[in-house]
Write a structure and sequence with these properties.
37% helix; 146 residues; single chain; 4 strands; 6 helices
């Protein structure tokens, strides 16, 4: 068993404020040195992997080549309501709903399926279920990347 470290910056750091939520805009304003931080991440981890290799990841954040499970788990009514908004507001509303799901659920384990180059597996659990040891509440997801 070993531990590894890899930096992963939010994908919205370089987006126009038009596409960001109020929270993201405030976070950007609170990070005056984000360009230097991004450069340091590129310098220290030039060959970051954004998919699941043969390793097993315990905890952390969802690593997904396509839509992560959190997108599938989003509230259908909130998604429907977001579709009626102008494009920029729709993107923000969908992002915030995905973030809500990510705050509620945590990846328990993620891994590439052995002998299946394009298949990943992921188990997610609610924070309160994890704390209470209710592993019967875990959800499993399979991702096909081809």
């Amino acid at each position: 068993m070993y531990a590894g470290l890899q930096a992963e910056l939010p994908d919205w750091l370089d987006r126009s404020e038009t596409w960001l939520s109020a929270t993201q805009i405030q976070l950007l304003r609170d990070m005056p040195h984000r360009k230097e931080m991004s450069a340091l991440v590129e310098q220290l981890w030039p060959e970051r992997q954004w998919w699941l290799p043969e390793d097993v990841f315990i905890g952390g954040y969802s690593i997904s080549a396509q839509d992560p499970p959190e997108v599938i788990m989003m509230d259908k009514e909130r998604r429907r309501q977001a579709r009626s908004l102008p494009r920029a507001e729709q993107m923000v509303a969908l992002y915030e709903e995905q973030q809500r799901v990510m705050r509620e659920w945590v990846p328990l384990a993620q891994f590439g399926v052995p002998d299946e180059e394009f298949v990943n597996a992921r188990f997610l659990v609610r924070h309160d279920d994890l704390a209470a040891g209710r592993f019967d509440k875990v959800l499993s997801f399979c991702e096909f990347t081809e």
